[in-house]
């Protein structure tokens, strides 16, 4: 297939090929190591969802979802005692998994695919009366589709203001829901066409730290469920949602559509497993900030830096991330809320230089008002990194100029957690236990861990759903 987003028609459409892959995938076709990593990605998501229940955004979201469910809900929610309608529970679970910006990322696609595909798979598998193996297989299928489709754009969606986690996640969730509800390949292909009219996700939250990004993955799950259900009942959608004249890439990317590589949408399906390349976050912030934050912490430790000794700081970042974590400059240097801080190179670098760490406590209100950190953040300027390997890696380099004129620098060319520098499964388990400690006893955390790591071993999905919820 050519690199044009509107190729000549020859052979099955992308939607048809993805539909066939998803419909035909069996658990036996997925390598054991990929299934093991999949279980750990789910564990990471479950831990983050529990931790999110500690924060105000979760409870305000729950209030809204409870009102929408109007007391008719029967579906448990991760980490909470409230039951919602299936669709509202999907949305709520997505908010919880993505709400702390601590969830996994596929680098080439720049997409948080688990945050949408897992809530969709969990809800649909339970509704269909299937087991954990069916859920895990559908989740893997959705991850393979979502990461590939997002990779087609080569990071372009962020440049034009769209969030691929919501936008592309909807197509992955459509196939997850469709598979679990027994759609045939023709129906699965049609469902993707329907998704084209319900997929969304704006990056305008970057201007003021709004909460809307938190709902993108869950909304993708809702969109996928809706599209798959409509297709199952014979509703018709466009045949070419990807390569069409007004397909997702042409419509959403505009002039950048010329840079797309549509062949990536179906490349090596069933042979190369993109899920194995998904990276787990070591820091609760936008992945684009991690390398610079780590570089700053290393400089502080290596040279015994004190804030009072620092005259100026430069952060070298990939050109593609500037709109996300460096601009607008005023709110990046003085975040107005935790979400501003999670998407701020100046704040991440200043925090790491001042404290040697960047964790959830560095997003509390008191931390955001720390005048020493804010004064240092005001000294942090960004430059385009001419040697950036983006999007293969989210590199970062920090250069500190001291009051005596000396210049200290450190580069993290491969960000921690990248496919070539992975967070191990043991690390994921430690991160899970740390997140659970915010809201649950060590005993409950261990029980949930053991359940998730055996999720595909003769357990009904409805029982998994119930076990992940808090007791009322």
Automatic annotation (TrEMBL):
Q: Which domain of life is it from?
A: Bacteria
Chain ranges of the MmgE/PrpD N-terminal domain: 17-254
Against SUPFAM superfamilies, the record matches this protein to: 2-methylcitrate dehydratase PrpD
Q: Extract the Gene3D superfamilies matched here.
A: 2-methylcitrate dehydratase PrpD (3.30.1330.120)
Q: Pfam families, alphabetically?
A: MmgE_PrpD_C, MmgE_PrpD_N
Q: Please name the GO terms that the record assigns under molecular function.
A: lyase activity
> Ranges for the MmgE/PrpD C-terminal domain?
284-455
PANTHER family named in the record? 2-METHYLCITRATE DEHYDRATASE (PTHR16943:SF8), 2-METHYLCITRATE DEHYDRATASE-RELATED (PTHR16943)
Give the UniProt family note: Belongs to the PrpD family.
Q: What is this protein called?
A: MmgE/PrpD family protein
In which organism is this protein found?
A: Caenimonas sedimenti
């Amino acid at each position: 297939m050519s690199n044009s987003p509107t190729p000549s028609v020859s052979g099955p459409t992308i939607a048809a090929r993805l539909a066939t892959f998803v419909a035909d995938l069996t658990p036996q076709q997925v390598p054991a190591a990929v299934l093991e990593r999949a279980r750990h990605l789910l564990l990471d998501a479950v831990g983050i969802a529990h931790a999110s229940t500690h924060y105000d955004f979760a409870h305000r979201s729950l209030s809204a979802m409870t009102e929408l469910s109007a007391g008719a809900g029967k579906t448990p929610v991760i980490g909470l005692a409230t039951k919602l309608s299936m669709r509202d529970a999907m949305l709520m679970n997505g908010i919880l998994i993505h709400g702390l910006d601590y969830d996994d990322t596929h680098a080439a696609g720049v997409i948080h695919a688990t945050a949408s595909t897992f809530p969709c798979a969990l809800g649909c598998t339970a509704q269909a009366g299937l087991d954990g193996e069916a859920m895990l297989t559908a989740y893997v299928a959705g991850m393979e589709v979502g990461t590939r489709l997002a990779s087609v754009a080569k990071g372009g969606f962020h440049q034009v203001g769209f969030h691929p986690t919501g936008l592309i996640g909807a197509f992955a969730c459509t196939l997850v829901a469709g598979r679990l509800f027994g759609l045939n390949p023709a129906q699965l292909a049609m469902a993707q066409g329907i998704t084209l009219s319900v997929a969304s996700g704006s990056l305008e939250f970057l201007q003021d730290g709004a909460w809307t990004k938190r709902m993108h993955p869950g909304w993708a799950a809702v969109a996928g469920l809706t599209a798959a259900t409509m297709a199952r009942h014979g509703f018709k959608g466009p045949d070419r949602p990807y390569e069409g004249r007004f397909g997702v890439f042409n419509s959403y990317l505009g002039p950048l559509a010329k840079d797309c590589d549509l062949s990536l949408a179906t490349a090596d399906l069933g042979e190369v497993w993109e899920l194995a390349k998904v990276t787990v976050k070591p820091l609760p912030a936008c992945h684009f900030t991690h390398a610079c934050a780590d570089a700053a912490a290393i400089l502080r430790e290596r040279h015994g830096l004190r804030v009072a000794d620092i005259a100026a700081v430069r952060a070298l970042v990939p050109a593609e991330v500037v709109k996300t974590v460096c601009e607008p400059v005023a709110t990046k240097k003085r975040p107005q809320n935790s979400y501003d801080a999670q998407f701020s190179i100046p704040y991440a670098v200043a925090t790491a230089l001042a404290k040697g760490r960047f964790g959830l406590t560095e997003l509390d209100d008191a931390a955001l008002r720390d005048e020493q950190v804010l004064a240092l953040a005001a000294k942090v300027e960004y430059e385009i990194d001419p040697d950036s390997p983006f999007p293969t890696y989210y590199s970062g380099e920090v250069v500190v100029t001291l009051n005596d004129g000396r210049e200290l620098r450190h580069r993290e060319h491969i960000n921690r957690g990248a496919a070539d520098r992975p967070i191990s499964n043991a690390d994921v388990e430690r991160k899970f236990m740390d997140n659970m400690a915010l809201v649950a006893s060590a005993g409950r955390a261990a029980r949930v861990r053991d359940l998730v790591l055996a999720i595909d071993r003769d357990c009904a999905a409805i029982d998994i759903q119930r076990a992940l919820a808090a007791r009322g």
